[in-house]
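Lab notebook, bench 4. Continuing the backlog of folding jobs that were queued last week. Each job is logged with the same field layout so the records can be merged later without manual cleanup. Today's entry covers peptidylprolyl isomerase, a 289-residue chain. Filled in by technician R.K.

JOB TYPE: sequence-to-structure
TARGET: peptidylprolyl isomerase
LENGTH: 289
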Amino acid sequence: MTAIEKPIQLETYNLLRAALSLFKKSPNELAEAELQQAQTQALNEFKIESRVLNTPEAASVIITDRELQQAYQEIRGRYDSEEAFVGDLEKNRLDKDSLQAALHRQCKVNTVLELVASRAPAVSDADIGIYYHMHPDQFHRPERREACHIFISVNADYAENTPEAALIRAQAIAEKLRKKPHKFADLALKHSECPTALQGGVLGVVSKGTLYPELDEVLFTLKAGEVSDAVKSEIGFHVLLCKSIQKPETLSLAKATPKIRQFMNDRARRACQRAWIAGLATPESEESQ
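JOB STATUS: finished
OUTPUT FIELD FOLLOWS
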């Protein structure tokens, strides 16, 4: 089956792809306004793909059975059973043949666009150096801290969670941990009312501005391994542990070069593709619509 035998099903596949991309839902799950948005995107994508496939570049591209089967199996592998796979296709007005036709078309479009992208000029070391010096903020990492907390909420409906009782509980936990900081994970699991209790109270590595301001202010004054007093935020009381401190650093040009080169290469490839697509002739069938 070729990529032009089932235009209705192919556009249906584009609609499915657009709905999943925009809303993470199938077309039949969309509200009317969402469906219209997905239909517009699907139609635009289908028209662009048709122009791509009508180029001399596309005429030289051959999609092998192996490539097609890899694309097909990538989708099939998301389902636990053949029945579930076929059922989902039917719900989206597709079948195996129309899916393979749509995938053949998509693979061919992707290959053509990769061919076009390969024409993008190479990024020079001078280009990289200019980018590095013009975007210094991107290569400066502020001080960060690996933090954990134990959280006691405030809820006047419960005797143990009145503001006074919650503060006393948090202070008692902080006092225990100052003597035995290695018990932090155990006490978090036992006392913390935050879901992070299951991971020992771990908040992760954070920079300033990530946590509540009251917590930030205290966390960034602690030494590595130090436990705070009870800290009040708008939702309750916290006991903080600063596990480690990562000092601020500025990435050198040498270390930043691979990341910049990748970014600039990707940007140049996309620009090359966009310019090429913009220059494609519009088929008469589209002009008449």
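OBSERVATION: The beta strands are 140-141, 144-153, 202-207, 227-233, 236-246, 249-250.
SIGNED: R.K.
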